[in-house]
Amino acid sequence: SPFYQDIDIQANANYMYYVCAYGYANEVLVQGDCSETVSQIVPLDTPVISSVNSIAYNTMQIQWTPVDCAVGYEIYKSSTKDGEYARIAEILDGAATSFNDTNCECGKEYFYYIKAAQLLEDKNVFGQASEVAGGRVTPNRVRISGGISQDQTQVTLSWNETPGAQGFEIFRSNGNSSNYELVQKIEQANVFSWTDTGLSKDAEYKYYVRAYCIIDGQAVYGTNSNTFLKEVIIVYDYSVFAGDVSVMTQYAGHVPYVWGGKSV
């Protein structure tokens, strides 16, 4: 046979092979010259990047599926997909499945690939590079709270300071509508509140805020905040009831009531 399959092998090992031809002469085994020796490392599987996500205004998280028998990983990074990549980290843990790159700029896009390592003769030997995966760094998600004026015609929204943000956009929906519209753009990083005026006291309003940063003249937006709801609050005017209100309250705490106002 012109080939041979060696199935008794294991990872993190370097195997040496050579081949010798032989024949028989007068029923005597005669061995010919042997080939040169060939060295072969048992390759690891190629890593697969499962996600690249922005988890902070300056941090990208790269996640991958672990490679069997790996003793570590190398992480490579570039600012363009087809550009020059530089190694940014070596992780000496074969069970690792993620790495946080904290050296990022809000709004920029970054690309990554990784290599898995095996241990040979007390040295880490890295295998094939994974496919490239990338993502864009976005501002942190803000959280909002709000207050409603006594006459219910104004809402004041407040939110937390957001590192990396260069401004904020405020969206509002009216009533039960799920359609939000931009009602205010704040082009300052140090403004953390805004008041919406001229509202109808008999209508509901919902709000959310998102931070943004500017890169190459374009806005890059963070995740939408939680929502704040201005509900319709009904204030009853008890003066419309005839008679002294004290007549209705004199039995409070003394006479039991059932739903509907009938005493028992």
Order of helices and strands: EEEEEEEEEEEEEEEEEEEEH
Number of helices, where a helix is a run of at least 4 consecutive DSSP H or I residues = 1
* Biggest sheet descriptor: 5 strands, antiparallel
General shape: rod-shaped
> What percent of residues adopt helix (DSSP H or I)?
under 10%
Structural class: mainly beta
Q: Catalogue the unreliable spans.
A: 257-264
Gap between N and C termini, in Å? Answer: 103 Å
SS strand fraction: over 45%
> Could you tell me the mean pLDDT?
86
**Gyration radius, in Å:** 35 Å
- Number of E strands: 20
Explain this structure.
With 264 residues, this protein is mostly beta strands. The protein has one helix at residues 245-249; strands at 14-17, 20-25, 28-34, 38-41, 48-56, 59-65, 72-78, 86-91, 98-101, 109-120, 123-129, 133-136, 144-148, 155-159, 167-174, 181-186, 193-196, 205-215, 218-221, 228-230. The strands form 6 sheets. Strands 7, 8, 10, 11 and 12 form a 5-stranded antiparallel β-sheet that branches. Strands 15, 16, 18, 19 and 20 form a 5-stranded antiparallel β-sheet that branches. The longest helix is centred in the C-terminal third of the chain and has 5 residues, at 245-249. The termini are far apart. The model is unreliable at 257-264 (pLDDT under 50).
Characteristic key phrases:
mainly beta, five-stranded antiparallel beta sheet
What is the secondary structure topology, with strand pairs?
Blueprint: E1 14-17, E2 20-25, E3 28-34, E4 38-41, E5 48-56, E6 59-65, E7 72-78, E8 86-91, E9 98-101, E10 109-120, E11 123-129, E12 133-136, E13 144-148, E14 155-159, E15 167-174, E16 181-186, E17 193-196, E18 205-215, E19 218-221, E20 228-230, H1 245-249
